[in-house]
Amino acid sequence: MAFGSFRAVSGASLALDEGEIIGLIGPNGAGKSTFFNCLAGDMVPTGGRIVFAGADMTRASPEAHARAGIGRTFQVPTTFEDMTILENVMVGAFLRHPRRADAHEHARRIVEMTGLKDQAGQRARTLGTPGRKRLEIARVLATGPRLMLLDEALAGLTPAELQQAIALVRQIHATGVTLVIVEHIMEVIMTLTQRVLVFNQGHVIASGKPDAVVKETAVIEAYLGHGRRKRRP
Ligand SMILES: Nc1ncnc2c1ncn2[C@@H]1O[C@H](COP(=O)(O)OP(=O)(O)OP(=O)(O)O)[C@@H](O)[C@H]1O
User: Fold this and answer.
1) What is the whole-number distance in angstroms between the Cα of residue 9 and the centre of ligand 1?
2) pLDDT tens per residue, the chain (233 residues)?
3) Which residue of 36, 68, 106, 199 has the lowest C-beta tally within 10 Å?
4) Helices (H), the chain
5) Is the pTM of this model over 0.95?
6) Of 146, 144, 150, 182, which is closest to residue 168 (Cα–Cα)?
7) How many Å apart are CA 130 and CA 96, to the nearest integer?
8) What is the CATH number of domain 18-231?
9) CB of 8 closer than 6 A to ligand 1?
10) Distance from C-alpha of 121 to C-alpha of 153, rounded to nearest angstrom
11) Which intervals hold domain ABC transporter (predicted)?
């Protein structure tokens, strides 16, 4: 993916198996979001191909991606502030449940599964960060995705909230959903993913099982080591 003469992502390749959980990691500006946006249909790549379940999705619209079963969350949750939590989730549910009563029932089940039942009747504007993150996940889940793309969906949570969110992602995966996760929180990557791709300056510099990848010198130098130095007082 090039922006003018600047190549934000170059030569990155990922073959994703059904049922996998893949992590995309790397320093700020490495190209993770750009790669992710191409997978989600929010950017049309300037080169390469994206194929999902046998269909070429390279130039397909975000709507076509949702219909095909690819759902994404946004780093900054984009909720309908004056609608209730249940209504927000119904927006996603309408994709596969055109009748209002069916969409309502489906959304109710998703709201319960995602731990938002007690707030279902409240307006989205009343939610704090953890609730917003959950609602973002719930609304995508309501579209019935086969593949969910999570863009820092677990950032900004307290340790206890993070554990609950990890449990929710596990629960979603257990229902048969394949996941691609962009995340800076290494605990999320190490506990949830089966395979990671490490981006640096637009290139994939390492890929493989998380516990092996984090030991690679190139990954430590480009990403993990840098983070450790930054965290030192
Ligand atoms: N629309 C755009 N136009 C021009 N350059 C862009 C555009 N979007 C991203 N870039 C550039 O592409 C590079 C990769 O950005 P990207 O957002 O994909 O990185 P990232 O790894 O997701 O970083 P972060 O962890 O901060 O989200 C950066 O240098 C960024 O400035």
Assistant:
1) 9
2) 999 999 999 989 999 999 999 999 999 899 999 999 999 999 999 999 999 999 999 999 999 999 999 999 998 888 999 999 999 999 999 999 999 999 999 999 999 999 999 999 999 999 998 899 899 999 999 999 999 999 998 888 889 889 999 999 999 999 999 999 999 899 999 999 999 999 999 999 999 999 998 888 888 888 888 554 443 33
3) 68
4) 32-40, 62-68, 85-93, 100-113, 129-141, 159-174, 186-192, 210-213, 217-219, 225-231
5) no
6) 150
7) 27
8) 3.40.50.300
9) yes
10) 23
11) 1-226
- Cβ–Cβ under 8 Å, residues 155 and 183: yes
Please check whether residue 179 is in contact with residue 147, taking contact to mean a CB–CB distance below 8 angstroms. Answer: yes
Joined together, the tokens standing for residue 92 give 């996603």
Residue 231 corresponds to which tokens in the numbers above?
Answer: 């965290």
Q: 40 is written with which tokens?
A: 């989600």
**Is residue 32 in contact with ligand 1, taking CB distance under 6 Å?**
yes
Handedness of CA 94, 100, 103, 104 (dihedral sign): positive
* 8 Å CB contact between 178 and 16: yes
Angle between helices 100-113 and 85-93 (to 10 degrees): 120
CA distances from 175 to 141, 178, 230 (A): 11, 9, 38
| Domain segments of the chain as ranges | 18-231
